[in-house]
């Protein structure tokens, strides 16, 4: 609001929408955590929806790219604004993942949990790539599934042609993995 008042510009207002999208997986995990009994198929369905929206939470970090459009001293204001939203998005990410780990511990085998939560940061990294660089949205799985599927298949079939997809996926995957490890150690320093 301060930036809006200073500049009379709605330039960074999209951050509010991005943060709203980041809250969706948190709301889903919160809802699941407080449900008494869920059938396995319900849990799988909710988890799929959760996974579909989860990359939106750390995606906000990529909004730092918009700093290149900031003028003069406004760049410092924009840095604070975008960083605040990015930190909030990362917090929604780690809290939501931790809640889902508890839910999965109660409903799935250790092997399934390990496979899922090991690949999760990299799936989010891939989702971030699809959103930031190819401009897909979470709802494109319903609105334009053919285009999304064709694009994903091409990336997997021709990895050398899509090297940026893999650099972003692995880079963000490791970043998100480190953020989650750091969050866990911060919550329980005795185990580290």
The radius of gyration computed from the alpha-carbon positions, rounded to a whole number of angstroms, is: 18 Å
Low-confidence stretches: none
Distance between the termini: 40 Å
**Total number of beta strands:** 0
Run of helices and strands: HHHHHHHHH
Structural class based on helices, strands and sheet pairing: mainly alpha
Count of helical stretches: 9
Summed up, the domain count is: 1
Helical coverage, percent range: over 70%
Can you put this structure into words, describing what you see?
The protein has 192 residues and is mainly alpha-helical. It has one domain (2-187). 74% of the residues lie in helices and 0% in strands. It contains nine helices and no strands. The longest helix is centred in the middle third of the chain and has 34 residues, at 74-107. The chain is globular and about 55 Å long. The model has no long low-confidence stretch (mean pLDDT 93).
